[in-house]
Amino acid sequence: MANQLLEVKNLDVWYGDFQVLREVSLHVEEGTIVALVGANGAGKTTLLKTISGLLQPRKGEIFFSGKPLHNLKPQDIVDRGIIHVPEGRRLFASLTVLENLRLGAYIRRARINFDESLKRAYDLFPVLEKRKNQKAGTLSGGEQQMLAIGRAIMAQPKLIMLDEPSLGLSPILVKTIFQLISTLNEQKATILLIEQNINQTLKIAHQAFVLKIGKIVMSGRGDELLANEEIRKAYIGERAGKR
Amino acid sequence: MGDFGLISQVVVNGILFGSMYGIAAIGLSLIFGTMRIVFIAQGAVIVLFAYFCFWLFSLLGIDPYLSLIPIILASLLLGAAFYYGLFKEAAALKDRIGSLLIAVGLMFFLENFMTVVWTPNPRAVVTSYGFYAFNIFGIHFTLTRVIGLLLAILATVGVSTFLRKTLMGTAVRATSEDVEASTLMGINPNRVNAVTFVIGIGLAAIAGTTMATTYSFDPVYGFDFALKALVALTLGGIGRVYGALLGGIILGLIELLGTFFVGAGWAQAIVFAVFLLALIFRPYGLFGGASE
Q1: CB contact under 8 A, B171 and A106
Q2: Which residue has the higher pLDDT, B286 or A49?
């Protein structure tokens, strides 16, 4: 078995009296794209928030490069090499593009390589260099997503977790974002991805997990799940019909 | 000159006095920005530093402007101690009511503490140059008040530069905008909160020294001062450093011009009427949109 970068074991997460995740286990191999799919409210975002330390699990363990993660504070988890690009991007709208990128490299390990990382971010997204002194809130939706991903790579992460990166973008930009995710992956980043665009997601994912009401109900290679009748009916057909 | 000269004098005094509200308001603004609480003890802390200044002057004969050095150093320690000792737990639980109650408790503690140590009688630091003044176009400028204004401007420029030019300053602004997102950048919210507290209390040290050298003060004067700082903050717009200074100056003008034209009692009523009007019609401050 290849090198496991992230391992989640039997995770139970509660919001107050409400259990959101039930015995969730998954693993992410180094250098792969792993997709997490499921309907709204299935617990995908909750899982990412638990991995990044914003939420505490009631039960279960998370290991990163073999070391336990579930007792660490969010800032230490960033330091270990996990970066979480949250839903809705959560840029600092009143700060400039450059300031957002600077904060991406806030942790000491990343700070010393700031110039190098900045060059990489600008190479990937030339538009960010053009708009570097503009406030992030004035960017278009596509540019904002580029900034969110650019800001994430400033931290020199080993694992990038993306929560709905294509949300609210035009079809052509959605395509760009998916190409970009593949590019990042070719540049050795491991990616854990939540997406509504199940079709495109499963095409690029090496491995995928299906989350349903807080439980992992299915997992397999992206193309396997894409060919799966049940998945096609439940998630790909679903987008046209009921929500 | 006649009335015009007199009014100019009131205007100048209003500006000089208001700058003190201004730097108190900057401290409130920073702490509100990151922790979302009104640090109502700010005024009592300012008075505490005025007493420090008074003590260093009357017991050790240290010039009040020289005493700024030990007072600012003490304020930095005190700021960190306040945060880590009193507010850290409540901040971690995002318990704003708890934080506010702690601030209220701190204010009453300091008021009573100061009453015991320094008696309720008003005090002032009266230096040999305390009454020195110069005239420009017939307007009287008291030296200590002018120095107070210069210190306030210097402190404001300093804080603004810190917020704009340093990584920690950028982190403070980011945390004010979105704590969770800043946490995801690896920013430790405790450190940011502590930094804003240290700066806020540092500004209180400067305001306290200015207060000691220009006015008389007593242990319970701080509450009124904190309320005025809150008004200044509202006028200037939360999160705007220069706005807060300007808000303080506008408030100083309203207060002194109001006192001059309609009397001290009405002036206070007008101040808080302006506060209410600003909250209703200009909730983001007099100087523009939602944030900078």
Answers
A1: yes
A2: A49
The nearest alpha carbon in chain B to A104 belongs to B185
The answer to whether residue A84 sits within a structural domain is yes
A/B interface, count of CB pairs below 8 Å: 66
Do A106 and A148 belong to one domain?
yes
Residue B287: what pLDDT? 75
Give the pLDDT mean for A163-190: 91
Q: Which residues in chain A touch residue B188, judged by CB atoms under 8 angstroms apart?
A: 73, 75
Residue of B185, B195, B241 to mutate, testing the A interface (most A Cβ within 10 Å of its Cβ) = B185
**Which CATH number is B230's domain given?**
1.10.3470
Find the domain containing B43 and state its range: 7-281
Same domain, A109 and A63: no
Taking CB atoms and an 8 Å cutoff, what residues of chain B touch A91?
181
Number of domains in chain B: 1
Name the residue facing A75 among B170, B177, B183 (closest C-beta). Answer: B183
Domain that holds residue A67: 1-15+54-71
B194's enclosing H/E stretch is helix B189-214
Please answer yes or no on whether B173 and A93 come within 8 Å at the CB atom. no
- How many domains are contained in chain A? 2
pLDDT (tens digit, 9 = 90+) per residue, A216-232? Answer: 998 989 888 888 888 88
Nearest to A167 by CA among A204, A141, A131, A136: A141
Angle at which helices B167-177 and B143-165 pack, to 10 degrees? 80
Q: DSSP per residue over B139-178, as a string?
A: EEEEHHHHHHHHHHHHHHHHHHHHHHHSHHHHHHHHHHH-
Q: Residue B58 CB: number of other CB atoms within 10 A?
A: 12
Q: Is residue B2 part of a domain?
A: no
- B292 in any annotated domain: no
**pLDDT band for position B248 (50/70/90)?**
very high
Name chain A contacts of B178, Cβ cutoff 8 Å.
90, 92
- Tell me the per-residue pLDDT of B64-111, one tens digit each, with 9 for 90 and over: 999 999 999 999 999 999 999 999 988 888 888 899 999 999 999 999
Using the beta-carbon criterion (under 8 Å), do B174 and A155 form an inter-chain contact? no
The reported pTM is 0.90
Substitution target from A76, A102, A103 for chain B, most B beta carbons within 10 A: A103
Task: List the beta strands (DSSP E) in chain A.
Answer: 4-15, 18-29, 33-37, 59-64, 67-68, 82-85, 159-163, 190-194, 207-212, 215-220
The whole-number pLDDT of residue A240 equals 45
- State CA B125 to chain mean position distance: 19
Average pLDDT of every residue of chain B: 90
